[in-house]
């Protein structure tokens, strides 16, 4: 095993790790050695294609098919230089004040989160797309919301030079999304942070990480890892875990910290989502243009958020209910399809948690509570009304019976759509906003870190990713992850005298 | 390439696939190979236990209709095949629902991830985005 030594090691390069790396780059100038380890490969924009299987295989954990323990929900998260920021749509919302207040984390205020979000809004070129760049799939959502008595809001997005490929969730072939792979990681590397890809943190020991660097396989996308394939023991004065809401708890659990941290892995939430589809009587622009430009926030009133979306043939097929001729007919109507993503706002519960199996691989236990199923039902009803108000001829609603609602029955939406039609394992449910598992909080019995990502009782161990969330965020999380990671980096700098025996100089 | 999971149960697997996606019945041998390769590659990294379960599920689906119709799945007409799969999909047993969902997902992956299938349903996404549209 090869030994190496650094002052700081960051594990993970997504919204959390990428932000910490960029923020700690200034320490390199002061003579500190900072290393970032990323499990996935470094893939360039020119390698991105519209081929779902190729990109899922290259970018997503378990090729995009990571399932919860009982097999009833798919969890999507990326493993690549840039983490899940490579595959998000760049929607950039600031956490609602009420959510941050409800978390009740000492020293964490909504104003502080908003201030730090503003920094990344500027850094990531977040803006509203002009009307001429919006496709009909998005415009019909606005029309439908207005017709159904709702008010759609436009997502600020972090794109630069977007050509409208619609392929955000497969990685942008034009490098137009301003994820950490495009902004913070290059910034960190220019500042002297060393980044090693294809490097999996196997376990954490006292101030050390055991790392496996894997070889690039023939035909695999991406550059080879920066270190030779093999096993490494990397000593560090500070270790920052940024492997995400599944990766970080799993890493700490397989490193044996579960007994010391009883809250580790608990309070997992994820915004369980349904992809809802409607058919219009004419072709609309749907597979061109930014896919996610508008949303309807009903989190407070009804426990759900609707977002525009447009997926790819297989993903769409998987998420439309049923099979056989009716399903095929819907797929043949692809150019006429409008899509809405219905996200349920779930709550942190003790039973919904991340554990590890005997091989140390993550296992996510998740139960659909009656509250979540009701949220999905209300979301389906609202989406169906929006579709019909936008002129759709029929709506595919997995919580309706029959699962296809014709326009002539649109007044019956509330009756036809009912929570009793939800059957786990039959209805396709997916989630991409993975949160919790190493929550911030006041003490070791109910949380893993303080409000600055310092692991209780282990000052050399920090966490900077969505696993810090003590409960659901109720919106797209990446900006909030960056804001919290910014705090974690600040705390590392502030704590430098005790961590490194000297200060890091002015920030 | 080898088909270690579904090759031994190919007739039943293809009968199920053509029920899930009726267009699959029209695939030529190259088309089937492409679809089956995509499926096998996807499950290649899964555990041996899961792969065995998938093959077992195909066998169960093939044999289950003997109880109701006195014939194997492969010997049923299209309507009865649909009924069998729908019954399993609506089963009170999570294991059965989950099994059908998983198999259905893999079959859709195999069929719709092929570029020609995407083209046939009118999917036109391109890296060029708006520039590629008239």
Secondary-structure blueprint of this entry?
The complex is a heterodimer of chains A (about 500) and B (about 130).
Chain A: E1 2-11, H1 15-29, E2 34-37, H2 52-59, E3 66-67, E4 74-75, H3 97-103, H4 110-123, H5 136-147, E5 153-154, H6 184-190, E6 194-196, E7 199-205, E8 208-213, E9 230-241, H7 244-254, E10 273-279, E11 294-298, H8 299-302, E12 304-308, H9 313-319, H10 325-332, E13 337-344, E14 353-356, E15 362-365, H11 370-389, E16 394-396, E17 404-406, H12 413-416, E18 430-431, E19 461-463, H13 478-494, H14 496-500
Parallel strand pairs in A: 1-2, 1-9, 2-6, 4-18, 9-19
Antiparallel strand pairs in A: 3-4, 5-11, 7-8, 8-9, 10-13, 10-16, 11-12, 12-13, 14-15, 16-17
Chain B: H1 10-20, H2 29-43, H3 48-63, H4 65-69, H5 78-89, H6 94-112, H7 115-120
What's this entry about, in short?
The complex is a heterodimer of chains A (507) and B (134). Chain A is of the alpha/beta class and 507 residues long.
Give structural attributes:
heterodimer, A: 507 residues, alpha/beta, FAD/NAD(P)-binding domain, Cholesterol Oxidase, domain 2, seven-stranded mixed beta sheet, seven-stranded antiparallel beta sheet, 18% strand, globular, B: 134 residues, mainly alpha, 7 helices, 63% helix
What does this structure look like?
The complex is a heterodimer of chains A (507) and B (134). With 507 residues, chain A is α/β, with parallel strands linked by helices. Chain A folds into two domains: 2-125 and 164-268 and 433-500, FAD/NAD(P)-binding domain; 131-159 and 273-345 and 369-423, 2-Layer Sandwich (Cholesterol Oxidase, domain 2). Helices cover 27% and strands 18% of the residues of chain A. Chain A has helices spanning 15-29, 52-59, 97-103, 110-123, 136-147, 184-190, 244-254, 299-302, 313-319, 325-332, 370-389, 413-416, 478-494, 496-500; strands spanning 2-11, 34-37, 66-67, 74-75, 153-154, 194-196, 199-205, 208-213, 230-241, 273-279, 294-298, 304-308, 337-344, 353-356, 362-365, 394-396, 404-406, 430-431, 461-463. In chain A, the strands form four sheets. In chain A, strands 1, 2, 6, 7, 8, 9 and 19 form a seven-stranded mixed β-sheet that branches. In chain A, a hairpin with a 6-residue loop joins strand 3 (66-67) and strand 4 (74-75). In chain A, helix 1 (15-29) packs parallel to helix 6. Chain A is globular. The two termini of chain A are 36 Å apart. The model of chain A has no long low-confidence stretch (mean pLDDT 96). With 134 residues, chain B is an all-alpha fold. Chain B has one domain. In chain B, helix 2 (29-43) crosses helix 6. Chain B starts with 9 loop residues before the first helix and ends in a 14-residue tail after the last helix. The model of chain B has no long low-confidence stretch (mean pLDDT 94). The chains are: A alpha/beta (507), B mainly alpha (134). Chains A and B meet through helix 2, helix 9 and helix 10 of A and helix 2, helix 5, helix 6 and helix 7 of B.
């Amino acid at each position: 095993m090869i030994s190496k030594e650094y002052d700081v090691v960051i594990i993970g390069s997504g919204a959390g790790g990428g932000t910490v790396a960029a923020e700690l780059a200034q320490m390199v100038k002061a003579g500190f050695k900072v290393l970032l380890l990323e499990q996935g490969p470094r893939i360039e924009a020119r390698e991105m294609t519209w081929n779902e299987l190729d990109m899922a295989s290259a970018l997503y954990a378990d090729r995009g098919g990571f399932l919860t323990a009982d097999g009833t929900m798919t969890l999507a998260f990326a493993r690549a230089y840039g983490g899940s920021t490579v595959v998000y749509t760049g929607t950039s919302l600031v956490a609602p004040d009420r959510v941050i207040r409800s978390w009740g984390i000492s020293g964490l205020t909504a104003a502080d989160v908003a201030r730090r979000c503003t920094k990344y809004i500027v850094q990531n070129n977040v803006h509203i797309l002009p009307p001429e760049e919006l496709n009909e799939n998005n415009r019909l959502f606005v029309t439908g919301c207005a017709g159904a008595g709702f008010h759609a809001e436009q997502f600020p997005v972090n794109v630069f030079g977007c050509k409208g490929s619609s392929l955000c969730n497969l990685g942008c072939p034009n490098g137009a999304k301003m994820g950490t792979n495009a902004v913070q990681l290059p910034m960190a590397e220019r500042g002297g942070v060393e980044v090693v890809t294809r490097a999996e943190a196997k376990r954490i020991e006292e101030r050390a990480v055991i790392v496996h660097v894997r070889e690039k396989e023939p035909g695999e996308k991406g550059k080879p890892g920066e270190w030779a394939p093999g096993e490494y023991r990397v000593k560090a004065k500070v270790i920052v875990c940024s492997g995400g809401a599944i990766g970080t708890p799993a890493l700490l659990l397989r490193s044996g910290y579960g007994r010391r941290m009883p809250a580790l892995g608990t309070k997992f939430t994820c915004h369980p989502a349904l992809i809802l589809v409607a058919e219009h009587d004419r072709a609309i622009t749907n597979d061109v243009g930014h896919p996610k430009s508008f949303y309807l926030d009903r989190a407070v009133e009804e426990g759900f958020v609707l977002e525009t979306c447009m997926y790819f043939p297989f993903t769409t097929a998987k998420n439309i209910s049923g099979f056989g001729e009716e399903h095929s007919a819907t797929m043949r109507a692809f150019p006429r399809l409008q899509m809405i993503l219905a996200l349920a706002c779930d709550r942190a519960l003790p039973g919904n948690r991340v554990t590890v199996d005997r091989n140390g691989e993550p296992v996510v236990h998740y139960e659909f509570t009656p509250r979540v199923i009701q949220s999905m039902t209300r979301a389906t009803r609202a989406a169906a009304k929006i579709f019909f108000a936008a002129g759709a001829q029929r709506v595919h609603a997995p919580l309706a019976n029959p699962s296809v609602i014709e326009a002539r029955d649109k007044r019956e939406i509330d009756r036809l759509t009912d929570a009793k039609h939800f059957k786990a394992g039959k209805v396709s449910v997916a989630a991409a906003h993975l949160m919790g598992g190493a929550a911030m909080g006041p003490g070791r019995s109910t949380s893993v870190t303080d409000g600055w990502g310092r692991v209780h009782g282990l000052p050399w161990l920090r966490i900077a990713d969505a696993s810090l969330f003590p409960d659901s965020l109720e919106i797209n999380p990446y900006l909030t992850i960056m804001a919290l990671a910014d705090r974690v980096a600040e705390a590392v700098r502030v704590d430098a005298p005790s961590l490194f025996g000297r200060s890091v100089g002015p920030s | 390439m080898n088909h270690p999971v579904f090759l031994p149960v190919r007739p039943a697997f293809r009968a199920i696939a053509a029920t899930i996606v009726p267009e699959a019945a029209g695939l030529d041998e190259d088309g089937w190979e492409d679809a089956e390769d995509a499926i096998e590659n996807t499950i290649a990294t899964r555990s041996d236990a899961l792969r065995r379960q998938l093959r077992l599920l195909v066998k169960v689906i093939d044999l289950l209709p003997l109880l109701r119709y006195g014939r194997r799945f492969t010997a049923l007409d299209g309507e009865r095949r649909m009924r069998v799969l729908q019954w399993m999909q609506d089963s009170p047993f999570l294991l059965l629902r989950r099994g059908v969902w998983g198999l259905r997902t893999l079959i859709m992956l195999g069929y719709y991830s092929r570029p020609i299938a995407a083209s046939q349903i009118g999917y036109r996404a391109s890296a060029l985005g708006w520039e590629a549209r008239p």
